[in-house]
Input
Amino acid sequence: MTTLPKRYLKQLIEADLDKKMVFLGGPRQVGKTTLAQSLINNYQDEHPAYLNWDSDLDRRKIRNREWPKSERLIVLDEIHKFKGWRNFVKGLYDTLKNTHTFLITGSARLDHFRKGGDSLLGRYYYYRLHPFSLPELGPNKKNLMRLFKFGGFPEPLLEEDERTLKRWHTGRLSKLVRSDLRDLETVKDLDKVEVLAEELPRRIGSPLSIKSVSEDLEVDPKTAKRWISILDSLYYCFQIAPYGSPRIRAVKKEQKLYLWDWSQVEDPGERFENMVASQLLKYCHFHADANGEKMELRYIRDTDKREVDFVVLKNKEPLFAVECKLKGRSVSPHIFYFKERTSIKKFYQVSLEGEERQVQDGIISTSFERFCAIEDMI
Output
């Protein structure tokens, strides 16, 4: 078993806690609690400064504000499940900001589940914690193959055991649907939502047809769309929109869908594409959360079905585009086509392994490991 490194957001959160509250969102079991507890002085098995809303005892303490006055940092975990949490947290900050600072963590998008009440604008910084990535673990072939096989979530990554991975998948999905979703949204047919979550890994990489999903589940398309949106809000999946202009007759509405846990994807090529998508989303979220940049992850596809898998935008301007190939092959002709017809200056064709070569000015074929280094991924 390998010891995992310190998380990439730790120093940033420590610095920001001196200024405001910090909200830390991210998928269930991605390591939010471990990161939060590592910020508390002398944290051991239990600590009165760490309070979890899922605990009956802690819930009472939170409501009664029963935490140690000597501790500067108070961690409130999963408090977004409390209906009036935003007003409650606002009151804490406004009355106690001179004596305490607060770290609010949750396995749902804390900026999404807004149940009314006063705005918290200006009182917090928001970070999204992602699974481990290759740059975070250390860029070498062994870590790359570990990530590709077991994903970036700490428990299965540490165990490196297929049986553990399968059991972890089952347990995590059940808790997400039966606990997290139930606590936050009113959904009558949880069984079908669970079926949907099990089906989504087979729809990775291609434009997502809500009509097809609704027909398979035998529900209304609006219902299927809402369920996918809920799973997105719970950090189970994410969608990316198309990028383009009239010059390339780009598609406008079709979304592509990926999972936060790419180890659920069985097809090797689609799993690799999902792993790259997760790395690029982590890059975008980091620069948005830490530096205030307006970052977007999109893809390029035209009405003739020419496609490049991803394009990263900063302030609506393209930084680079990425095409994924499991193995190093000849460069996709779609890259050359879009290079001539868009303002994108850099295109990469990235493979799981392979040698770097400059194909022509602005087009590079390289390994995923080398790509992460070139573009300074997180």
